[in-house]
Design goal:
The chain is an alpha/beta fold. The protein has 3 domains: 3-220, Rossmann fold (3-Layer(aba) Sandwich), CATH 3.40.50; 246-313, no CATH class; 323-398, RNA-binding S4 domain (Structural Genomics Hypothetical 15.5 Kd Protein In mrcA-pckA Intergenic Region, Chain A). Helix content is 45%, strand content 16%. A 6-stranded mixed sheet has the order 1-6-5-2-3-4, with helices on both faces. A hairpin with a 2-residue loop joins strand 9 (359-363) and strand 10 (366-372). Helix 15 (281-296) crosses helix 16 and helix 17 (334-340) packs across helix 18. The radius of gyration is 24 Å and the shape is globular.
Length: 399
């Protein structure tokens, strides 16, 4: 095998779970290098929230390495498919988003993606472009290319039917609609998480139906989220967004399980995970958090976030730059305050934090001296109060 092909193959194969197929990939690489034609690398995200998170970064880092070798990335923003909602790995229906929600969510995707990808070797395409122009006859022809029996080979679909859970026709056609993107691009290689394997195979099948050479399928491991058990997901709320503030990102990374930490090293950094395992777990996690924060911001901000975290959580001091909320009177409703300060997503979340003892009233200057808040209403003295919400959030309330 030519050394150039081996180099490209090694980059593609690193940390990969599925590669379908290696022989076809070698042939595509051979032709690409011989003709000096970049491979068309496809990846797609449905804008179901505003954030690209570290789970996406696992794939984007792989693509950036291939861009550095000369290949070209097509990032599909699924503004059309988001109207359906990807059912992969789901046992319940996804809520249907409005056009406005999808538009707002998609607006910042390119900016976030270019924190990793090379903008000069990336083309962003909204897949509504071809679906808005598609005639009904063409759409029906697309649907006829797959049987119900083939669709029900998806384990999550068949399981939902066995358990009498709802499964809509929209969800059934989702893999076909996503797969058709590959036809329109004439993609050479498509990348996705392991939960996307079925959808990627459908894209490969559709290309053959439409007379194209089938794309290579590359799946990567799913990054476990902050809960330590489920994949990092926008819908589960266990994710770390790539545009989060350094202090917030650092704190979240320090909260992951020690067992999960090594996967983060392997999939999100260029640091030798084996070398990191020789360190004390706490020191290794501090290094991990600093590396990731530095990557998305600057080395100076990564170092500052580490220093602040150690000052607050090792020395039990209160952060220097905590948010301040100005109360209109001496008695405040904690639910209203936390929601207004955007420290919780809903009043129910704030209520759960109180019930679970997750909100504390701190002594000035020292976060280790605290009183658990057990009531919804608090009295604010003239000097103000400082609250600790969860493990990493603080809020000063003044009159």
């Amino acid at each position: 095998m030519k050394s150039q092909i081996r180099q490209h193959l090694d980059v593609i194969s690193e940390n990969v779970v599925d590669l379908l197929s290696k022989e076809e990939l070698i042939a595509k690489l051979d032709n690409s290098l011989a003709t000096n034609t970049p491979l068309k690398l496809k990846i797609g995200f449905d804008p179901t929230s505003r954030d690209i998170h570290l789970g996406h970064v696992v794939l984007l880092r792989k693509l950036r390495k291939l861009q550095d070798l000369g290949h070209f990335v097509y990032l599909i923003i699924g503004d059309f498919t988001a109207k359906i909602g990807d059912p992969s790995g789901r046992n319940i229906l996804r809520p249907i988003l409005s056009d406005e929600e999808i538009r707002d969510n998609a607006a910042s995707y390119s900016e976030q993606a270019f924190k990793i990808l090379d903008e000069g070797k990336t083309k962003i395409i909204y897949n509504s472009i071809w679906y808005k122009q598609m005639k009904l006859a063409s759409f029906l022809a697309l649907l006829s290319s797959y049987t119900i029996a083939q669709i029900l080979e998806r384990e999550d679909f068949s399981q939902r039917l066995k358990e009498n859970r709802p499964l809509t026709l929209l969800e059934i056609i989702y893999p076909l609609v996503q797969g058709y993107d590959s036809v329109m691009l004439e993609a050479d290689v498509e990348f996705g998480g392991t939960d996307q394997k079925f959808n990627l195979i459908v894209g490969r099948h559709l290309q053959q139906v439409y007379g194209q050479k089938p794309q290579i399928i590359v799946t990567m491991p799913l990054l476990v989220g902050l809960d330590g058990k489920n994949k990092m997901s926008k819908s589960l709320g266990n994710y770390i967004g790539v545009t989060e503030e350094p202090k917030e990102m650092f704190g979240k990374l320090m909260s992951i399980n020690d067992e999960v930490m090594w996967e983060y090293f392997r999939l999100l950094t260029g640091h030798d995970a084996a070398q990191a395992k020789k360190m004390h777990p706490k020191e290794a996690k501090l290094l991990l958090a600093q590396l990731i924060v530095s990557f998305f911001t600057t080395e100076a901000k990564g170092a500052a976030a580490r220093e602040e975290f150690q000052r607050v959580f090792s020395q039990k001091e209160i952060p220097q730059d905590i948010a301040t909320y100005k109360a209109s009177g001496p008695n405040v409703d904690i639910l209203e305050v936390l929601l207004s300060a955007k420290l919780v997503a809903s009043k129910n979340e704030a209520r759960r934090l109180i019930t679970q003892g997750g909100i504390s009233l701190l002594s000035a200057g020292n976060s280790s001296i605290s009183t658990t808040v057990s009531t919804q209403t608090l009295s604010i003295p003239e000097s103000g109060i400082i609250l600790k919400i969860g493990k990493t959030k603080f809020l000063k309330i003044i009159l």
